[in-house]
Every structure is written in structure tokens, then in C-alpha cells.
């Protein structure tokens, strides 16, 4: 590690310092419950006290270092004395000038807001199907499953924000906090793909049932194939990315087979592309319908909701690119969960808009004008098919 004492660390220096913090915490299980910066201080003081002649037995006795971690530490730092010297440099030269960013208190408010809002919309959707159609369709049940899964995702995200603690950077956390946070992030990373899969399949099933146009149906097949394939591929990549699934317990034995950050960004980009495709799928059908002004405005609002979901998906991808690489000036992943919850819930609200509109037309027709158009713009299958034919 460089001895630079600049007032602000470069990205490369910060990257090295964050790695040093992570390794210092991982090498001291005996003090895994206290902030890593305190452990670094202890290791630096010990190194000076023994004139840097640190041995494996010293680390095991005074810091609880595991036998299996000794060789990897030597491989990473060159020798145990060099590891101790880097800890001293980190404490004396870098710790005084690094920033101490706090985690944003945003996950819980976003979760509670959408829990209430999306819950009302989903309730109206199911009530509309029951009262107007006489029964709830299969894709509505699938959307309900997606909503319940979104609640589970939100609860896990809140738990992750609590496990993540007050501080963002590794050196301000205890190693136990780092490991617990990594565990929740892994679970949420895997679970996100399945939540999105269920919600998108419910939307595609809805589109499929509302048109007999072969071109649209083939497009639906293609999008569904991509969504399912991306979900399955990401699931197995996340599970098998490292030799140990619980990599947070094996900091020095990760042996990862792929570039995890690149993989996460790639899967995220594909999900953004499918969001856009699903948003555009019904557009050719809707453009051919003859709608009154108020109906046309409502359709535009519905499409704006879909566009907002696509935008949220894009911001999520940006957060993934920024926060999964700790060479940046933050190590927080909470913004990924925030944008994920926004995207998921906007997809659910957007998919429920036609059913809610039908309910309004039935019980409050003055809100949207004439009752000439029964059902919904996309929901009214006979209207759509008559235009196509």
C-alpha cells in the first residue's frame, strides 16, 4: 500500500484501503464484534510492539486468526510482517483522512409506502375482477403471488438495512456486521430475479389472453423466454459464483470463478430491456383503438406508469454498477434495494391499472366519462381483436 498522505484518497487507494479493512476484520475473528478500524489499530500497535516480527502463532493467539487463513494472508500481502505494516500504514496514514459516510435511512419508508399503496391497488384489482368478470383470472393470481413476494423482498431489504448498521464503509463496521450484510445482500440478489419473473409473467399472460394477433403473441413468447432464461441463468450464476456459497464466511478462500460485478450488471441490463419490451408490447394495439379524450388521457397515464417502472429499472442498474464495486466512495448496497422495490411495485401498479379503470367505469362513470367503453382499453378483448381483424 502506498504511503501517500494526500488529503483525499484516489479511487485506487480507497479500493486498497477497503480491501485491507475487509482482510483485517476477517483475520481477527476474536474481535469480529468491534469496528474493524479498532482492530486495525490493535494490529498496528502490536506490530510496532514486536518490531513487525509477526508470526502465525501470534495472529492465532492474539487475534484468533484461523489456520486456514494464514497461507492466503501471506499470498495476498507477501508475508505476515507486511500484513502488519500495511495495517499500521492504514491506521496512521489513511484512517485520519478517509470519510465516514452514513447509510441512508430510506429503505423502510419506501417499503411501508408501497406496502400500503400497492396493497390498495391489488385489492381493487381483485375486487374488480370478481365484480365485473365474475371470477379472478389466472394472471391475477400470479400477480398476487408477485405482490406477496414483493412484501417478502421488502421485509428482507429492511432487515438488510438494519444489519448494515449506521455506517457504510467496512472500516467503520464490525466484521460481524459486514458478514451479516453480505448474507442479506446475497439472498436479496437471488430473490429479486424470481420476484420480477413472476410479475412479468403475469403481465405477459394478461397480454396473451387479450389478443389473437399472432405477431404480438410471438413477441410475448420471445420476451417470456428471455425473462425466464435470464432468471434461471442469474440464479445459478449467483449460487455458483464462488467456491463457497457463504463467501462472507470465507473471505480468504473465495475462489470466485466469474467477475461477479460484471455478471450482475449484465443480468440487470437484460431485465431493463425486458421491462422496455413489456412496456411497448401493447402499444400497437392501443394506437389502433378509437378512444374518447378522457380514455386516451388515462391510457397515457397508464403508459407513464410503465415508463416510470422502466426508469426505476434503469436507476437500479446504475446503482448496481456503482455500489457492487467498493472502489467507489461508498460500500452501501441499500440504494439497489430501494430502486428494486420502486421498480417491482410500479410494475404491479401498472399491471393493475386496467382492472382499476374498469371498476371506476362501473361504479363512478362520471370520473372517466361515457360508459360506452366497458372493461378496459387493453382488457376489452373483443374491441382489440375487432381492430386487428
Walk me through the topology.
Layout: H1 11-26, H2 36-49, H3 56-63, H4 67-77, H5 80-94, H6 107-133, H7 138-164, H8 175-209, H9 214-240, H10 260-280, H11 283-287, H12 293-323, H13 334-363, H14 365-368, H15 381-388
Helix pairs in contact: 1-2, 1-5, 2-5, 4-5, 6-7, 6-13, 7-8, 7-13, 8-9, 8-13, 9-10, 10-12, 12-13
Organism: Dactylellina haptotyla (strain CBS 200.50) (Nematode-trapping fungus)
Keywords: Membrane, Transmembrane, Transmembrane helix
Transmembrane segments: 106-127, 139-158, 184-206, 218-240, 260-285, 297-319, 339-364
Any overview of this molecule?
The chain crosses the membrane at residues 106-127, 139-158, 184-206, 218-240, 260-285, 297-319, 339-364. This protein has 389 residues and is an all-alpha fold. It has two domains: 11-94, no CATH class; 107-388, Rhopdopsin 7-helix transmembrane proteins (Up-down Bundle). It is 72% helix and 0% strand. The chain has 15 helices and no strands. Helix 4 (67-77) crosses helix 5, helix 7 (138-164) runs antiparallel to helix 13 (334-363) and helix 8 (175-209) runs parallel beside helix 13. The N and C termini lie far apart (71 Å).
Percent helix: over 70%
Question: What is the CATH level 1 assignment of the largest domain?
Answer: Mainly Alpha
Number of DSSP helical runs:
15
**Shape annotation:** elongated
Q: How would you characterize the largest beta sheet?
A: none
In total, the number of strands is 0
Given as residue ranges, the uncertain stretches (5+ residues, pLDDT < 50) are 2-6, 370-389
Amino acid at each position: 500500500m502506498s504511503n501517500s498522505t494526500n488529503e483525499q484518497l484516489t479511487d485506487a487507494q480507497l479500493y486498497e484501503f477497503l480491501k485491507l479493512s475487509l482482510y483485517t476484520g476477517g483475520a481477527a475473528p476474536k474481535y469480529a464484534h468491534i469496528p474493524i478500524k479498532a482492530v486495525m489499530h490493535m494490529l498496528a500497535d502490536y506490530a510496532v510492539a514486536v518490531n513487525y516480527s509477526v508470526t502465525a502463532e501470534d495472529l492465532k493467539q492474539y487475534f484468533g486468526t484461523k489456520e486456514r487463513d494464514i497461507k492466503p494472508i501471506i499470498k495476498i500481502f507477501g508475508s505476515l510482517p507486511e500484513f502488519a505494516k500495511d495495517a499500521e500504514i492504514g491506521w496512521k496514514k489513511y484512517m485520519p483522512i478517509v470519510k465516514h459516510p452514513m447509510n441512508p435511512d430510506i429503505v423502510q419508508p419506501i417499503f411501508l409506502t408501497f406496502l400500503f399503496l400497492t396493497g390498495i391497488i391489488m385489492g381493487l384489482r381483485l375486487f374488480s375482477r370478481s365484480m365485473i368478470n365474475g371470477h379472478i383470472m389466472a394472471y391475477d393470481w400470479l400477480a398476487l403471488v408477485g405482490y406477496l413476494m414483493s412484501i417478502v423482498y421488502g421485509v428482507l431489504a429492511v432487515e438488510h438495512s438494519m444489519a448494515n448498521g449506521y455506517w457504510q464503509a467496512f472500516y467503520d463496521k464490525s466484521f460481524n456486521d459486514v458478514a451479516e450484510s453480505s448474507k442479506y445482500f446475497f439472498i436479496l440478489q437471488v430473490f429479486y430475479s424470481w420476484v420480477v419473473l413472476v410479475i412479468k409473467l403475469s403481465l405477459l399472460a394478461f397480454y396473451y389472453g387479450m389478443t389473437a394477433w399472432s405477431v404480438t403473441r410471438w413477441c410475448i413468447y420471445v420476451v417470456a423466454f428471455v425473462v425466464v432464461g435470464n432468471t434461471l441463468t442469474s440464479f445459478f450464476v449467483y449460487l455458483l459464483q464462488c467456491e463457497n456459497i457463504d463467501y462472507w464466511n470465507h473471505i480468504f478462500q473465495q475462489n470466485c470463478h466469474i467477475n461477479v460485478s460484471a455478471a450482475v450488471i449484465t443480468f440487470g441490463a437484460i431485465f431493463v430491456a425486458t421491462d422496455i419490451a413489456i412496456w411497448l408490447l401493447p402499444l400497437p394495439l392501443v394506437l389502433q383503438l378509437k378512444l374518447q379524450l378522457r380514455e386516451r388521457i388515462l391510457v397515457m397515464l397508464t403508459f407513464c406508469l410503465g415508463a416510470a417502472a422502466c426508469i426505476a429499472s434503469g436507476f437500479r442498474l446504475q446503482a448496481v454498477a456503482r455500489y457492487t464495486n467498493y472502489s467507489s466512495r461508498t460500500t452501501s448496497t441499500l440504494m439497489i434495494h430501494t430502486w428494486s422495490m420502486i421498480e417491482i411495485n410500479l410494475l404491479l401498479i401498472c399491471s393493475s391499472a386496467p382492472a382499476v379503470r374498469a371498476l371506476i367505469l362501473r361504479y363512478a362513470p362520471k370520473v372517466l366519462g361515457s360508459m360506452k367503453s366497458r372493461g378496459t382499453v387493453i382488457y376489452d378483448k373483443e374491441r382489440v381483436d375487432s381492430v386487428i381483424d
